[in-house]
């Protein structure tokens, strides 16, 4: 079913010094490509994008690029009813958050007024600090998922999601995941066909297979400062062919099972079992990519899954494709 609207959707992109450039440009490009396709069909533009900041003028990003803010936060607060607000993240979100109490207060006031409040990557910290995500499922960049869960325990942090929609609140994982989210916005506003056209232009999946954990397992093992969790994670990564009962992992961390489960979730944003599963998946992907002739039964054994059927089930559930299809697509 195609969706039609009387006027263009207004998207207000909120930036601040040090914002992530790619997180801003990616979604802006999605909305621009959507407009191009609508014009080709003889229809008016579907989106009007404005750049908003505390003050008008050039706002420097985390790269050599800056964006010219044409409207202020005060103006958006006055005329933002029903619009879509898109708040990008920062590489240094803790410092930016501490230095931006006015932006947090602004989010708290504006969020109930707008049609969609979207936070990309670590931009979710602004919404969390404003209290508008309490009790809601939330995505963020995998590297700060544990920190978000720790600082804001009333939030249900999904460390694996590419993006999450919970009512009028949308949040995404890091950087390019903002493009995935923007495609979902286009699909909601104008239907599947237009969103698919834009995805093809950008050489993107309309709905990419798998979650963000497929990119991050080994790096995530380095992101926690908790020595017990680090020890358990490292043991997992070095012994993937072996069984991984919770009791064993807790022992590696020198903790009780109950405390280990709680601390692991708090530190990493995912459960121990999810980490193990994602680690097995990542290693299986590496084997299929680099050792194309390895029998699937051998791959399954090397990652502790036991059978080809278990390997296939994991790939289909997490990535949406079979191990054979994955090897054909990505293998040497």
From TrEMBL:
Domain spans labelled HTH araC/xylS-type: 230-329
Gene3D superfamilies per record: 3.40.50.880, Homeodomain-like
Keyword set, alphabetical order: DNA-binding, Transcription, Transcription regulation
Keyword Transferase: no
Record GO terms (molecular function): DNA-binding transcription factor activity; sequence-specific DNA binding
Protein name (Swiss-Prot/TrEMBL): Bacillibactin transport regulator
Organism: Comamonas testosteroni (Pseudomonas testosteroni)
Gene behind the chain: btr
